[in-house]
Design goal:
Layout (H helix, E strand, L loop, with lengths): L1 E6 L10 H15 L5 E8 L1 E2 L2 E2 L6 E5 L3 E2 L2 H10 L19 E4 L1 H6 L9 E7 L6 E2 L11 E2 H12 L11 E3 L5 E4 L2 E2 L8 E2 L9 E2 L13
Parallel strand pairs: 1-2, 2-8, 7-11, 9-10
Antiparallel strand pairs: 3-4, 5-8, 6-7, 12-13, 12-14, 14-15
Helix pairs in contact: 1-4
Amino acid sequence: MKLIVEYDQNQNSLPSGFVNAINYVVNYYDTVFTANVTVTIDVGYGEIDGQRLESDALGESEQINVNPVSYSAVRNALIAENAPGSSTLPAQPPPGNPGVLYMASSEEKALGLIGNNNNIDGYAGFDSTPGTFSYAINSAPPGNQYYFVGVVEHEFSEIMGRTSYLNYTGTYSLMDLFRYSGPNSRQFTTGAASYFSINNGATNLDNWNNFRTGNNGDLG
């Protein structure tokens, strides 16, 4: 993958270590994700796409170019890639799904559903309050700071597709196809139990956030 970052601010005006930490994430993701596609992210300091961040946000992200896609085309592309869990996807959309499957442009490019391009795939913004972050790489931050690299990885991976759409009526994401409430029981709601599985729910790989137990953050 070729991950491109465009900055809203002059890089020389950003805190020491800010750009180096982002470059670290870019290089890491370029190595881990091997699809021959370009993903472009616009980064703001203290803002996202020109808008102020929410008051309690360490970072925010926004996918753009999110489009409805064919379930069968997505399933076939995943199977062709031998993607983990793709063999569990039924030929027809699973029973109980909430409506239309949507996908961000970064994922569409990765699966060959649209052509590769250099268009912006999403926006990310990070808190500018002095002292909030430690920009050191692979080093535990002091107790009064947050690890900036981890926040960047979180926001960038959401733009790349790690996002649930179940909190929007009538929509779901590719990731939501691997959300289970129990064995052989996909969950297309925002409630509990909610866990990630690639073998039809037999193995709980980790729990998702869900609104029923008070996890009001990102469902993904």
